[in-house]
Design goal:
heterodimer, A: alpha+beta, B: Rossmann fold, five-stranded parallel beta sheet, lyase (chain A), RuBisCO_ssu (chain A), carbon dioxide fixation (chain A), Ribulose bisphosphate carboxylase small subunit (chain A)
Chain lengths: 140, 313
Amino acid sequence: MRLTQGTFSFLPDLTDEQIKKQVKYCLDNGWAVNLEYTDDPHPRNTYWEMYGQPMFDLKDPAGLMMDLEEARKTFPNHYIRLTAFDSTHQWETPRLSFIVNRPPEEPGFQVTRQEWEGRKVRYTIHSYATDRPAGQRYQR
Amino acid sequence: MSSAEDTTDRNKTEPLADDARVDLDAVFEESQIQEVFDQLDRDLVGLTPVKTRIREIAALLLVDHVRRQFDLASDTPTLHMCFTGNPGTGKTTVAERMAQILHKLEYVREGHLVSVTRDDLVGQYIGHTAPKTKEVIKRAMGGVLFIDEAYYLYRPENERDYGQESIEILLQVMENQRDDLVVILAGYKDRMDRFFESNPGFRSRIAHHVDFPDYDVGELCSISELMLAEQHYVFSDDAQMAFEDYIDRRMRQPYFANARSIRNALDRLRLRQAARLFKAGGAVTKKQLMTIEAEDVLASRVFGLPVESRSSD
């Protein structure tokens, strides 16, 4: 099951050329871009691990692409997302975020139902990938 | 974003016919590069070899641009440069201009200058250098990376120095990402030569070695006038003469750093002018506030020293 998170999530994955243009757009707005990765794609897992440092003072997407290439080499079987952070007063939040790398195979999520008092049912979802320890997920 | 689209569109257009003609003057006009040249001539006194080289590079890039319209493929020219010259000869100033020029010629995408020294590139412990250097390179992407006093990167006396690691990363980027970044090294001539001797890889990757000549008295005078005008001061006629004399004497003193020494001297002149006005008290006119008098100049230390002292040589 294809994971859909962040901006453009229902479009096909962006090509490098398209990523570059998005980054250019972010930089032109004065946002700082950074890369994050994880192998726990639960939708509530908000805080992913950061790859390197946030790239303040970047002027051109080429710098980010250099890092992205490295990140993809280091974590080919992880999700990698790009986040653009707006540091303007009272924004101070990510403004744009999308997935730039995904594992070759995504097993998806299981819905677990819990019987509760009075015939109530509680639902929760569980990623199949997280059955294995961190770092060994999404490996064949 | 629109500029990126423009380039792709332009690349898609059909190549011109073999017998088509392109008006080079029109291309030159369109690039608005003349403006930059004019500004260069106005703001930078002397430096003929440097200006000539800049014109040559501009011509090369323009011709390259036209060649591409005829579908004549050629590699992107390497524009990594090395600026050598004594202190205060305008290396940093020219590097800044270079970034603008290359931007106008569409060689670099952003046209900003990132100015660094050894401290910004080389780390203090193992594993610190590579991320640090890469961080700087990332920041400079799309513009010009200016490494001042580049020879400090290489310390032959310490074989475990981390500078070497930084050099290797730089070399790799200079070779592989020529489209993204222009590297300009700067430093004193003799030490730069020694640096290249021990790092032949660097020498071969740098296409343009530009030497910045020292200024003569006349040029330094014009520079001082430009600097004063920028800050809304003028010399009185006597002060002008006195300052010429000052430059002549100062040049023979040790640690003369061309335009930088002139800047410092002018700062001291402003100090003395202010002290003089203050001491006189009473009302002042705009003219008085602007004018630097001969006595401000003549109070300088160099007039007390024997002229023939050449202790530095």
